[in-house]
Design goal:
single chain; alpha+beta; eight-stranded antiparallel β-sheet; five-stranded antiparallel β-sheet; 18 helices; 34% helix; globular
């Protein structure tokens, strides 16, 4: 269904190219798959992906790595969203251990793995990405304890023996094979040089890597109509495999897949650094994927990364720094399934030290620190950077002269990504007029047009609801991506983009809500942002939102203008962050809401006569598959158009500016401190 909708919007020439490509792909798939049992002679080729500066690692990060490795060695597997699963040292790789569902060891297609019976195929997928293996070997490197080395080797041997290619759930998606192959390559890099007695084991693993390469090539997730993080994972995985393997055709593959990675950087990432899938969760995954590619490129002597590629990756880290809080936490925007290329110290910190309900997979100060060590962008601790040898902050490998705009404007705009950050004292308001992902063809967009997130003192007060889940529960999936789950206006109960509520529509969304580019400017009252969307065109309504920062006042004013004719119902939802409550009171021509917490935040909504409001139970999801209770404020009424609903937000300022919006040097100190005790932040 999604494919048919996309075809209807494309030119006949492009459709013809796609049809020819798909026919050729099926022929190529049969040809390549016939070689899986005999993948040809290849040898492992160690390249210096890691270039560790162990002396630069803090005791805290060392302790986290060892603690995580101890869990794996004991048969306990920590996950960000699922908690720690007791699976033993011979786990069932085909098991959703949350629902108890198993997938049979037969040949399956990816779509056959989504069963709509309360199971989630992402659980065995995530386990079989094997991203715990490099952490086991890091513990071995740090301690010299061979038991970590043996545990990693035994688990990999068990996986290979239990998952013969191409049968079973773990041979259904090329992206999953690519992420797993990278984990195995990183494992071998950390184990190298291999010992003489390990050579038979290495031969078995090398053969498996060759099979991974052929499998990915046979099932590559390319399309002339769209490419996404799946195809990007495929080609970076193939580039990684061709770098770590020697044999027929490997040199040509290195060149070809490197070229394709550069093409996708220009295609999938806007000039302002935003990933075009309209999701901050996938922004992190894609940033990490391209960073992995850069780290591999630097091992090719005499072939430096192209300046355009480096510059666009720099902008991706600048994007992260722009939208992150002082503690290195990104807002939840669009889908987030906690995807990684490698586990970060940020992830280990939360999996070892945080209760599941308090985790946030978009809290990534160490990833920001890696960007700082690579590009001089942003701020953050350097524990992850130390594994690649980037520890000297005075020697930035891809540095660029910092150019100050000299402007006192409190607004930062990412024009292509459709995000703006407005700062005022200790408060930040992040405004989202994000285009539908992949030019309306993406699967990770939410109905969040003209929504916003409010932080005060670096902490979210009004937030995005998050993701919940994908396929385990259709109602939960659709609830979290609905218009009502976001801090924006709902008109006549209609969705901004059409949602197909059936099980086949879990990764599709309509493309009705086109957004205008964010306009920024200054008027007599102060700076403002403005954007509109067309999601209610079928109702004859256009929604425009203007956000103002008022000079001389600790306040934002949000003006929602509805243009059109006739009478319409409207609903404004404002989602409070977890552990925050509120109380409502009548106000002159409106409703006053006081947010109860560690500082006074309040907002007043003004609108047509008869405005009503309530506080109701809600849910928030900051890691995949986990929801926690929260509350939201719901304001509703009916009005004749044109009409305006205005919301004034104010807060109590504090004199200690270190807990307000810090400058870049203060941000570095705060992120370093938070990294040592993330759950207490």
């Amino acid at each position: 269904m999604r494919f048919i909708r996309i075809l209807k919007r494309e030119s006949p020439l492009l459709v013809a190219r796609e049809v020819l490509w798909r026919a050729r792909r099926e022929w190529e798939k049969r040809r390549i798959l016939s070689r899986l049992e005999h993948p040809g002679h290849v040898e492992f080729r160690n390249v210096p992906y890691y270039n560790s500066d162990l002396l630069a690692l803090s005791e805290h990060s060392r302790a986290l790595i060892v603690a995580f490795a101890d869990e794996i060695r004991a048969g306990r597997y920590p996950f960000l969203g699922y908690g720690t699963a007791e699976l033993g040292t011979r786990p069932k790789w085909n098991l959703d251990f949350l629902s108890g569902a198993e997938w049979p060891y037969v040949r399956l297609e990816g779509r056959e793995c989504i069963r709509h019976d309360g199971s989630d195929v992402k659980v065995p997928y995530e386990l079989s990405r094997l991203q715990f293996l490099p952490v086991l070997c890091k513990a071995h490197v740090l301690t010299g304890d061979d038991s970590y080395r043996r545990a990693a080797k035994d688990l990999l041997s068990h996986w290979i023996h239990s998952n013969p290619i191409p049968v079973g759930v773990n041979w259904t998606i090329a992206m999953e094979a690519a992420l797993r192959a990278m984990s195995i390559c990183f494992l071998l890099n950390l184990l190298s040089p291999l010992r003489r007695e390990e050579e038979p084991w290495l031969a078995t693993v090398t053969r498996s890597l060759a099979q991974h390469l052929h499998y990915i090539e046979a099932n590559i997730e390319f399309s002339h109509l769209l490419t996404s993080n799946h195809y990007l994972s495929d080609i970076i995985g193939l580039y990684c495999l061709s770098m770590f393997l020697d044999g027929e055709g490997m040199a040509a593959r290195r060149s070809e897949y490197r070229r394709r990675i550069e093409v996708e950087m220009a295609r999938q990432v806007y000039k302002d650094g935003g990933d075009y899938e309209a999701s901050t969760g996938y922004q992190i995954l894609v940033t990490q994927l391209f960073t992995t590619a850069l780290l591999l490129m630097r091992t090719e002597r005499g072939v430096p990364a192209r300046p355009a590629f480096v510059e666009r990756l720099r902008m991706m880290f600048r994007f992260l720094g722009t939208v992150a809080s002082a503690s290195g936490e990104l807002p939840q925007v669009g889908d987030c399934d906690d995807g990684r290329t490698e586990l970060l110290v940020d992830d280990l910190e939360q999996m070892i030290s945080c209760p599941v309900a308090k985790r946030n997979s978009l809290r990534v100060p160490h990833l920001l620190g890696l960007g700082q060590r690579l590009f001089g962008e942003g701020a953050g601790p350097g524990a992850d950077a130390a594994w690649y040898g980037f520890t000297d902050t005075t020697r930035i490998p891809y540095s660029q002269s910092q150019i100050s705009s000299g402007s006192a404007c409190p607004i930062k705009v990412l024009p292509k990504s459709g995000i703006s950050v407005l700062r005022h004292g200790s408060a930040e308001l992040l405004f989202f007029a994000i285009p539908n992902g992949i030019f309306g063809k993406g699967s990770h967009t939410h109905n969040d047009k003209l929504s916003f997130v409010l932080r005060v003192g670096g902490q979210e007060v009004l937030c995005d609801s998050g993701t919940g889940c994908y396929t385990r529960d259709t109602a939960t999936r659709n609830r979290f991506r609905s218009t009502a789950a976001h801090n924006t206006l709902l008109i006549d109960g209609a969705e901004q983009n059409r949602i197909d509520v059936g099980p086949l529509g879990l990764f599709t969304l309509g493309n009705e809500a086109a957004v205008s580019q964010i306009q920024e400017g200054r008027e007599a009252r102060g700076h403002f942002l403005r954007a509109s969307h067309t999601g209610y065109r079928s109702l004859g309504v256009t929604h425009t939102r203007t956000i103002r920062v008022l000079d001389g006042e600790r306040a934002f004013v949000i003006e929602d203008d509805l243009e059109g004719d006739g009478g319409h119902d409207f609903e404004l939802n404002l989602q409070l962050a977890p552990n925050r409550t509120a109380e409502l009171a009548p106000a002159e021509n409106g409703i006053l809401c006081r947010v109860l917490g560690d500082r006074q935040v309040q907002f007043t909504v003004f609108g047509p006569a008869g405005l009503q409001g309530t506080i109701q139970q809600s849910l928030i999801s900051t890691t995949y598959s986990v929801t926690v209770p929260a509350v939201k404020v719901r304001i509703w009424g009916r009005t004749e158009l044109p009409a305006r609903i205005a919301t004034r937000i104010s807060w109590t300022e504090v004199t200690d500016m270190t807990v307000g919006q810090p400058d870049s040097s203060n941000k570095a100190k705060i992120r370093d401190a938070v990294a040592e005790g993330v759950c207490q932040a």
